[in-house]
């Protein structure tokens, strides 16, 4: 599927100033993953639960999850985030869907998704 970098902001839901990071956009990953130290220590985002995930190497892991406010271009939305290891910056499909975006892996950019309404 391919990955590329995108600049996004992340903050807690209490009106905090966003912390801007470069994340790998991976159309094959479900959830956004950020380092636990960034989420806890810099943004005061705590885990609110746990989820079971299949890792890239095929192992299953139980990982802490929480809610973060994401800033992409001029839009802001809240999405689930996995509290990951140091150096993990991964923007997943669930957050992209929240923003109505898809990953254009050919041109390495985020583009609006055509929405369906019934």
Folded structure, characterized:
- This protein is mainly β and 118 residues long.
- It has one domain: Acid Proteases (Cathepsin D, subunit A, domain 1, Beta Barrel), CATH 2.40.70.10.
- The chain contains two helices and nine strands, in the order E-E-E-H-E-E-E-E-H-E-E.
- Strands 1, 2, 3, 4, 5, 6 and 7 form a seven-stranded mixed beta sheet that branches. The protein has a two-stranded antiparallel ribbon with strand order 8-9.
- The longest helix is centred in the N-terminal third of the chain and has 7 residues.
- It is globular and about 35 Å long.
- The N and C termini lie far apart (29 Å).
Task: Set down the secondary structure blueprint.
Layout: E1 3-11, E2 19-26, E3 32-35, H1 36-42, E4 49-54, E5 60-72, E6 75-84, E7 90-91, H2 93-99, E8 101-104, E9 109-112
Parallel strand pairs: 2-7, 3-6
Antiparallel strand pairs: 1-2, 1-5, 4-5, 5-6, 8-9
Any key phrases for this structure?
118 residues; Cathepsin D, subunit A, domain 1; seven-stranded mixed sheet; 12% helix; globular
- Tell me how many strands there are: 9
- The amount of beta strand, in percent, is over 45%
Tally of domains:
1
* Highest-level CATH class: Mainly Beta
Oligomer: single chain
Number of distinct helices: 2
Kindly report how far apart the N and C termini lie: 29 Å
Task: State Rg.
Answer: 14 Å
Q: Please name the fourth-level CATH homologous superfamily.
A: Acid Proteases
Quickly give the structural class.
Answer: mainly beta
CATH topology: Cathepsin D, subunit A, domain 1
Helical content (DSSP H or I, runs of 4+) = 10-25%
- The assigned CATH architecture is Beta Barrel
The SSE string, one letter per element, is EEEHEEEEHEE
What is the 3D shape? globular
Low-confidence stretches: none
Mean pLDDT: 91
Q: Which sheet architecture does the biggest sheet show? A: 7 strands, mixed
């Amino acid at each position: 599927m391919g990955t590329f970098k995108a600049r996004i902001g992340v903050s807690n839901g209490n009106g905090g100033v966003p912390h801007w990071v470069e994340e790998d956009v991976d159309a094959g990953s479900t959830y956004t993953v950020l380092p636990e130290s960034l989420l806890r220590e810099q943004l005061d985002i705590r885990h609110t639960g746990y989820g079971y995930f299949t890792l890239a190497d095929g192992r299953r892991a139980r990982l802490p999850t929480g809610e973060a406010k994401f800033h992409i271009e001029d839009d802001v939305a809240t999405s689930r985030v996995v509290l990951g290891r140091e150096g993990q910056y991964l923007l997943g499909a669930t957050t992209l869907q929240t923003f109505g975006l898809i990953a254009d892996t050919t041109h390495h950019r985020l583009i609006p998704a055509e929405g369906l309404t019934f």
